[in-house]
Design goal:
Layout (H helix, E strand, L loop, with lengths): L1 H18 L5 E5 L8 E5 L2 E8 L2 E6 L13 E3 L2 E3 L6 E2 L5 E3 L18 E5 L2 E5 L20 E10 L3 H8 L5 H4 L17 E3 L3 E6 L2 E3 L12 E3 L3 E6 L3 E8 L4 E13 L2 E10 L8 H19 L22 H14 L1
Antiparallel strand pairs: 1-10, 2-3, 3-4, 5-6, 6-7, 7-8, 9-10, 11-19, 12-13, 13-16, 14-15, 16-17, 17-18, 18-19
């Protein structure tokens, strides 16, 4: 019976992988996309991302002529030129020049497939096929002049995107994985909380006790503080926005993260940190170092999890009522997507 259950769960994971092709995923930051094409991998699909004039374009990373990677090419006069034979393609993917036959007719089939993409909130979002099941996640603070936003260096983990997301919204690990930073073992209890499902996201408020942190404006660093409840918003399928009020609630520490499923077992994550206090740009490196410390502690644990894919059949792993509420709701939604 266990074998049958495992087979069914594996089928669910494969279906979720296919369904994810009809969802929006980040593949690059706006900052890294200059005038040079860049190669990316999304759901085992090789793509080229290129800025052509005012338009960001995404195509399969293969020239239709001889199969060369288009990401080896360059942009010439607003067109993407293949590095092998110099064929040029416009922003709609149509071939507009074949240098070896400059006066000859261009075959109708000389056309790249356009992949749906949108540049929004500092990221390039891609949907591989079909009508997207959900809207693109939003990160409103990035365009708010009252906030200072810092890009955390992009990182790759050997895990599924869903495992990465669930790690971010798991609180009972704070006291042990991030001991002395986000929690302490003697204050590991997680209070009850409610999870609300909306059109394309789950949201909840949760306040936990954490050690005082100079980075968050705390003065007495010997204290363990009971924070004002933070608001978490998980936008399906693989994005989270954390809004943590500090002090009296007028200042906010913001984290926005969005994961790119490179493959079923490898994930790239884009992360931004925003704050409306301590706005000195020279402090940015401190926020980056803090996040890198937390991320490395998490990476070791998450990459050890088996299976690498997140089991969306709730019977496959144990769950603690109340503590694991958001994980349960997240897995239920993923399960519904494949049914």
């Amino acid at each position: 019976m266990k074998g049958d259950s495992a087979a069914l769960d594996k089928a669910d994971e494969l279906q979720l992988f296919e369904k994810s092709k009809s969802m929006w995923h980040p593949v690059a930051t706006s900052e890294e996309l200059g005038t040079i094409p860049i190669p990316v991998q999304l759901l085992d699909t090789a793509l080229v991302v290129v800025r052509m004039g005012e338009k960001v374009c995404v195509f399969p990373d293969i020239c239709i002529h001889r199969g060369t990677a288009l990401s080896l090419g360059k942009v010439i006069d607003g067109n993407l030129q293949c590095a092998y034979h110099g064929w040029k393609f416009n922003s709609s993917g149509k071939c507009v020049s074949i240098p070896a036959r400059p006066t000859g007719s261009i075959p109708i089939k000389a056309q790249l497939k356009e992949i749906a993409c949108v540049e929004q909130d500092g990221l390039i979002w891609v949907c591989l096929s079909g009508e997207p099941l959900f809207e693109i996640p939003t990160f409103p603070q990035i365009n708010n002049p009252e906030y200072r936003t810092v890009i955390i260096p992009t990182y790759d983990w050997n895990s599924s995107a869903a495992r990465r997301i669930e790690n971010f919204i798991d609180f009972s690990h704070f006291a042990f994985v991030h001991e002395g930073i986000l929690g302490t073992p003697d204050k590991a209890e997680i209070p009850d909380y409610e999870v609300v499902r909306a059109k394309n996201f789950l949201t909840f408020d949760l306040g936990v006790e954490e050690p005082a942190n100079e980075l968050k404006g705390d003065k007495d660093l010997t204290q363990v503080l009971k924070r004002i409840p933070s608001t978490y918003t998980i936008t399906m399928p693989y994005s989270v926005l954390l809004d943590q009020p500090l002090g009296d609630g007028s200042t906010h520490f913001i984290l926005f993260m969005a994961s790119q499923p490179i493959s079923a077992k490898k994930t790239r994550t884009f992360c931004f940190c925003a704050r409306n206090y301590d706005m000195d740009p020279s402090k940015d490196s401190t926020f980056i170092e803090f996040q890198n410390l937390i991320l490395e502690q998490d990476r070791i644990v998450v990459e050890s999890q088996r299976p690498e894919e997140l089991p969306i059949d709730l019977s496959e792993e144990l769950h603690i009522k109340g503590v694991d509420r958001v994980s349960i709701e997240y897995r239920k939604w993923l399960k519904e997507i494949v049914n």
